[in-house]
Amino acid sequence: MRICYLADTASVHTTKWVRYFLERGHNVHVITASAGEGAFDDRTHVLRLPVVVRGVRPFLAPPQIRRIVKRIAPQVLHAHNVSGYGFWGARTGFHPFVLTAWGSDVLVTASASRAATWMAKYALERADLITCDAHHIRRPLIALGARPEKVQIVNFGVDTRKFSPVAPGTSRATPPPFVIISLRSFYPVYDVGTLIRAFALVVQHVPDSRVVLIGDGEERGQLEQLARDLGVGDRVLFGGRVPNDSLPVRLHSAQVYVSTSLSDAGIAASTAEAMACGLPVVITDFGDNGRWVKNGEGGFLFRPGDHEALAQAIVWLLTHEGARSAFGRVNRTTIEQHNDYEKEMAKMERLYEELCVQPNAT
Q1: Helical ranges in 2-131 per DSSP H
Q2: Which of 14, 35, 106, 158: CA 20 to 30 A from 132?
Q3: Residue 165 belongs to a domain
């Protein structure tokens, strides 16, 4: 198939989707307004929109995009993100048109203004297939105009070969110190401050413990100050941004993974990667998280912002080695069965094939 994506090339999700279909022998094109470089090789035809297009109001861009799509003549046009690329894709009038919701584009951006709501409705009403990675996203999609029968759950998926438990014959870093790891960026929605507050309580019960924060963002300075104010500045390591290929090593060095996010679509990619590596997890009880992790099985859920409950869960896991191992095995199995990258992309490939043989897709 000749597949054309409208997507952000700086996103690891775009890179993963493109890589799969390239490896399957498909002809892949990407139209993007992103200046970021994706991890693409010369088999991917990346067309960056001119600055004059990127800088205008969204409804003015489609004529240029329409001409590019006509030149590519794809069999499928697939836009990632309802509120931006999705609207542009719908305006081309091309079919079959696939639209993937990422979460905040539906839960936040689409309700930011009347114009944003209208653009989301416009895109969803014209899509032949809509995918998302969470059951709780279906309702707002339908409220915005998506026909229920057109909405499919397709997870972004985890590379379970790359993200896997430590190899046989080796073991995780032997504590102490115990390592608690987070891979969430330093922005308000990820609420990393709650983990630091929880950790200040954890060290009272497990003194030989550390927190490793992988990521960066606008709140880094105030998070560093918070750690110092709580007396744990020397025990909270800010590891900065780490390439995706290097994350398994970091996860293998930890005993517990934590996500304090106030909002997620489906299971967060970082949480799923930690689960694939066989880590027990403590994550917020939000959205679809309860579908992926059951209290006392793969880890624990806690109310967003409740640093005391988070601390209690972490302490319990750090002091129950057998449970950590058992929870990790449960999580690995969960990801293998329900969020494996190869399986999810194979599902997407079948959906493409079905669309391509349907007459008069609308």
Answers
A1: 12-23, 51-54, 62-72, 87-91, 104-107, 114-126
A2: 35
A3: no
- Which pLDDT belongs to residue 52? 47
Task: Tell whether 19 and 57 lie within a shared domain.
Answer: yes
Domain count within the chain: 2
CB atoms inside a 10 Å sphere around CB 192: 27
Stated pTM of the model: 0.85
Query: What amino acid is encoded at 162 in this protein?
Result: K
Per-residue pLDDT, 33: 84
Amino acid at 121: K
Alpha-carbon distance of 273 to 279, in angstroms, equals 9
Six-digit token string for 206: 């497990």
Quote the pLDDT of residue 109: 80
Residue 353 CA to residue 95 CA, distance in Å, equals 13
Whether residue 268 contacts residue 185, with contact meaning beta carbons closer than 8 Å, is answered with no
Are 312 and 351 in the same domain? no
Establish if 362 belongs to a structural domain: no
Distance CA 269, CA 77 (A): 24
- Six-digit token string for 97: 């048109």
Task: Give the span between the Cα atoms of 347 and 359, in whole angstroms.
Answer: 21
Q: Are residues 209 and 147 in the same domain?
A: no
User: Across all residues in the chain, what is the average pLDDT?
Assistant: 90
Of 164-178, 191-205, 213-227, give the lowest mean pLDDT range: 164-178
Total residues belonging to the chain: 362
CB 200 within 8 A of CB 232: yes
**Residue 362 pLDDT exceeds 80:** no
Range of the domain at 302: 178-338
Sign of the CA dihedral running 332, 176, 306, 156 = negative
Residue the block writes with tokens 């073991």: 171
Check residue 45 and give its pLDDT: 87
**Nearest by Cα to 179 from 276, 324, 302:** 324
Instruction: State the CATH number of the domain containing residue 64.
Output: 3.40.50.2000
CB 260 within 8 Å of CB 231: no
Task: List, in order, residues 6 or more apart from 358 with CB less than 8 Å away.
Answer: 96, 128
Rounded Cα distance, 179 and 182, in Å: 10
Both 16 and 106 in a single domain? Answer: yes
